[in-house]
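EF-hand domain-containing protein
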Amino acid sequence: MAIRRQSSAAASLLLPPVAALLFLWMFGGGHVMAHTEIRNMTALQKHVSFFDRNKDGIITPSETFEGSVAIGFNVTYAREFATLVHAANGPITSPADAPLPHLSIYIENMQRGMHGSDTGAFDVKGRFVPQKFEEIFIKHAKTRPDGLTYLEVEDMILANRDPLDPASWEGPQIEWGGIYNVASDNDGFLHKDDARGIYDGSVFVKLEEKRAFSHHSAM
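Predicted structure tokens:
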């Protein structure tokens, strides 16, 4: 399964000092406030704001872990995902005067976390680029025009890899693999509307609500 391969790959990148700092922070003290109003956010900022569970403009590792479980990631994958995301983006997005160890993600600076080998559906400032999103389905949706199979998602990821930037290859694999695993339908398709919702975070809200409803119905 995709999620298992990606989970193993993610685990291989975990460095003990980073993981130790992460979980110290997850269960440690607080941080300053950095409010960013939703109406002023770029698509990229909206994409990550779902994980800002207390809506203070700063995403802690524990919030990413909580949000990842809320959308359906298993605990092990959510832990690995939070570790990698915050190790990569915390230092980049944190202002100089932010509390150490700079593992929290500051939404206002999220554009600093842009990485290579992506689809191009975010511009350099984190704004959504509709034509680039449409190209995903024009180029890769071979089975049906409004959905992607797992193999088509893999094909898209490979097609977008920058051969001069191998350090950027793992991010899209983990991100798209994780979302495909929790958002694809019973026939194995990631629908176009759900893929679009990745870019502004709306699919995360949908997945959390769906999961909460399923749990409630099972009681």
